[in-house]
Amino acid sequence: MKRWLKYVKPYTPFFILGPLCMIVEVIGEVLLPRLMGMVVTNAASHTPWYSGGVAGLMILTALLMMAGGMGGAYFGAKASVYFASDLRMDIYRAVQKFSFSNIDHFSTGSLVTRLTNDVNQIQNFINVLLRMCLRAPGMLIGGLIMAILINPGLSVVFAVALPLTLIVIVAIVRIGFPRFSRMQTRVDALNSNIQENITNVRVVKSFVREDYETEKFQGSNRNLKKAGIDAMKVMVFMQPLMTLFMNLTIVAVIWFGSKRVLNAGMEVGELSSFVTYVSQILMSLVMLTMMLIMSSRALASGRRISEVLDEKSDLDDKNAAYPDMLIQEGKVEFRNVSFRYYKDSEEEVLRDINLTIEPGSTVGIIGSTGCGKSTLVSMIPRLYDVDEGEVLIDGINVRDYSLYNLREGVGMVLQKNVLFSGTIEDNLRWGDSEASDEEVRLAAEHAQADKFVSSFPAGYKTELGQGGTNVSGGQKQRLCIARTLLKKPKIIILDDSTSAVDTATEAQIRRTFREDLAGSTKIIIAQRIGSVKEADMIVVMNEGQITGVGTHEQLLETNEEYKEIYYSQMDRNDEKGGDR
Predict the structure, then answer these.
(1) Is the torsion defined by CA of 175, 181, 186, 187 positive or negative?
(2) What backbone torsions phi and psi does residue 370 show, to the nearest 5 degrees?
(3) Quick one: DSSP state of residue 465?
(4) What is the DSSP letter of 401?
(5) Which of 278, 237, 284 has its CA nearest to residue 256?
(6) Predicted local distance difference test score (pLDDT) of residue 190
């Protein structure tokens, strides 16, 4: 409860005023049938002034009920919307703090569902709860009291009707909860399917897999439909059953009540009021049932949200020894580093890595696909933490820096280049939001991006589609490099981020790195030897281990794996006419 009370406290007045306004409506609901009964009973024996006075009182009561109902709806909506907004923000913040391994526990579609659909379920429940938490019990208790006061003997009907109704309500809730949980899981799967398909729509079309993806979506959609129908069956059966109990109870009241009117001196107006109270009592039970059904759905969503909020990030800087320290030089050391993605797995992705990268140097890392190159450099900004050993920058363990200062000092262009919706300028300013226009342009020039950006009619104000879908792969890579350069980091990591760039442009980018970024440590992961040939040091990796370190010439003489990669690429270039 402490978790949810956190979102209630800032808006306590709304959470109090909403139910209080509903009490006004409840009082009206309880009084109106009695006033109506008085009119019916005494209309013939009293003056028109009497009936008119009672009618005026009924109108005043109705107006007060309207005011109470409107106030309850307003404050309930406001409280629930604010509650959901704060909760959604906290979930988003929690996700932002996740490490890569934390994110691996949830699919993208699942996180989207929890941030949207699940939060909406809780918001709807709170809205209904604030409007019904006092109204439904108030109508039930008030109706019972008034019915007993009118005719205690006839009220015995409730001794049969209420227990049966409660049994049905409990059964419905017990059946409904697991079904709503399954439905939310199916929503996860559907959202994941949609997200994956839309993000990779170009790949789908290039492989002519539209039919396959459509069939895959139909499967997810069919599963959600089935889960939704199973869940809605609970609602479908609930309403008729409750209506049946209500009508049977009313029939019983009218049957026994009519005999009391004829034989026991019960007034017709009293019977009319009693029937209305029966309807109110049973309607309040329907409201309670709806609340319980919504609560079962909200509980399922709350459990899923709690899984995200309870997920403990395995990366934090609470124990950082130097939280205010900034990266000064950019010297990187790996000491006996080992790492597994799955901690219970025997297979190590990195095994006993020892490597020193001097500040200001250019280091190339090359090796076969899946040998651990990207994982190795991910240890530097702590996208993952080592299992064994340590990574140091300027002689300080990366765990002793604050995450903010550590990542501010490291610029990383990931293997998958990602741009965001907005202008080109907006994307570049991710590197430095305070950068001047000239600094933005200079970073683009260094990344060989200024020329093609300037060719666009809107230049740096050109709007990018989501993920940068309206620029080519090579252009996207150069924009991502420019964004990192604008950050002016002491350590720059390029993770195969020039693979879509032609060799001439790549050579210009390397020259810029060498001449204009001499003070930064540059780590370049590449598949092409030409991309790292001029590096001060080249690291060769295979199956999670370093198998060679040296310059291009040294490795050609001493390292068989490097020679194999080099000559295989030379052979391919010869087949293409020697074009390097």
Answers:
(1) positive
(2) 85, 15
(3) P
(4) B
(5) 278
(6) 82
Distances (CA, A) of 339 to 318, 379, 404, 459: 22, 9, 23, 44
Radius of gyration of the chain (CA): 35
3-state class of 341 per DSSP?
coil
Q: Which range, 309-313, 358-362, 365-369, has the best average confidence (pLDDT)?
A: 358-362
> First and final CA of the chain: distance in angstroms?
65
Which residues sit opposite 198 in a β-bridge?
none
- CA distance to 36, 172, 218, 401, 556, per residue, from 225 (Å): 47, 20, 10, 50, 61
CB atoms within 10 A of CB 30: 19
pLDDT tens digits, 222-260: 888 888 888 777 777 777 777 787 788 888 888 888 877
Counting beta carbons within 10 angstroms of the beta carbon of residue 530, is it exposed (0 to 12), middle (13 to 18) or buried (19 or more)?
middle
Residue 359: name the closest of 323, 392, 407, 406 by CA: 392
Look-up of token digits 């409660």:
166
For residue 1, what pLDDT is reported?
A: 66
Of the candidates 186, 189, 191, the one whose C-alpha atom is nearest the C-alpha of residue 231 is 186
User: Is pTM beyond 0.85 here?
Assistant: no
What does each C-alpha distance from 415 to 371, 496, 512, 526 come to in angstroms?
14, 6, 21, 10
Dihedral of alpha carbons 197, 203, 205, 208, sign: negative
Q: Are 410 and 381 in contact (CB under 8 A)?
A: yes
- pLDDT tens profile 144-174: 888 888 888 787 887 777 788 778 777 777 7
Average pLDDT, integer, range 7-32: 88
* pLDDT for res 409: 92
Which pair of structure tokens corresponds to residue 134?
């006092």
Q: Is the dihedral of CA 344, 345, 349, 353 positive or negative?
A: positive
Task: Give the residue carrying structure tokens 């490597």.
Answer: 355
Q: Judge contact between 185 and 178, C-beta under 8 A.
A: no
Degrees to nearest 5, angle at CA 303 with 300 and 307: 145
Exposure letters 497-523 (e unless 16+ CB within 10 A, then b): bbbebeeebbbbbbebbeeebeebbbb
Query: How confident is the model over 257-273, as pLDDT tens digits?
Result: 887 777 766 777 777 88
* Contact indicator for 496, 470 with CB cutoff of 8 Å: no
The Cα–Cα gap between 155 and 139 comes to 16
- Of 96, 75, 81, residue with least CA distance to 7: 81
List, in sequence order, every beta strand (DSSP E) within 134-188. none
Q: In this predicted model, what pLDDT tens digit does every residue of 398-457 receive, in sequence order?
A: 999 999 999 999 998 887 777 888 899 998 998 888 889 899 999 999 888 998 999 989
% of residues, the chain, pLDDT over 70: 94
Side by side, the strands of the sheet bearing 388-393 are 350-357, 332-339, 388-393, 396-397
Strands 396-397 and 332-339: unpaired
